[in-house]
């Protein structure tokens, strides 16, 4: 099979970082990345077939998981990559986040739809719905993993400058600065609230959310964990970090709970501090 566009991107990305890492490590990296090709080498017709095949594999996994006592299964693994986010020629950084199903990109509120690839969003949302249907059939619940607050297209911030949050790309691995929204702003929280409600309406089986909050194109304003150093919206610079994180998590918690009686559980995964779980009870 000939290399697809996806594999070319993978090889270019590996070549770009070859000057930053030991040669042997880069070789291993290429092998590992090329192993993730189930969706990467697909035409549109092949992709549809692969999606169906993946659903069969997913159901087989669900059956095994239930036999071993599992109660929740992660539904966000192995999805088609969002190549539309390679929006800058020669910039490899999207390779670090195109496989992450950000809430605002997969379940965008009306305000964000003009900036998103809605064909891709609907395709991924439909996959999640199908996986939840399988879980429902087998009496299990779903687990959703994402990087949040995730970066948004630059055009959105040009049109809405007051909502621009921290720079979240890695300066040594990117050619352009990329920014996440400022979750201290009520309008951003409103967008997340709407996205969560859309997600929960379509996928009510999701009960657990685990968020990777300071890597792979995501981050909070003014945290020390940002690759570009502490930065963010000047309007929120002096707000305590605990209030920022709690405000964001509680917004998602309340939006998720609006769609069901049993509140969803939210976890924050911080790569520099290990795993910090915030189990938020209903308020």
Describe the protein's architecture and organization.
With 283 residues, the chain is α/β, with parallel strands linked by helices. It has 2 domains: 1-37, no CATH class; 44-276, no CATH class. It has 8 helices and 7 strands; from the N terminus they run αααβααβαββαβαββ. The strands form 2 sheets. It has a 5-stranded mixed β-sheet with strand order 1-2-5-6-7, with helices on one face. α3 packs parallel to α5 and α7 packs parallel to α8. The longest helix is centred in the N-terminal third of the chain and has 24 residues, at 44-67. The chain is globular and about 50 Å long.
Number of discrete helical segments: 8
Return the string of H and E elements: HHHEHHEHEEHEHEE
Q: Tally of extended strands? A: 7
The total domain count is 2
Overall morphology: globular
Q: Roughly how much helix do the residues carry, as a percent range?
A: 25-40%
The rounded Rg comes to 19 Å
Strand order of the largest sheet: 1-2-5-6-7
Distance between termini?
54 Å
Main beta-sheet strand count, sense and barrel state: 5 strands, mixed
Strand content: 5-15%
The low-confidence runs, each spanning 5 or more residues with pLDDT under 50, are 1-13, 15-32, 269-283
Structural class: alpha/beta
The overall average pLDDT, rounded, is 84
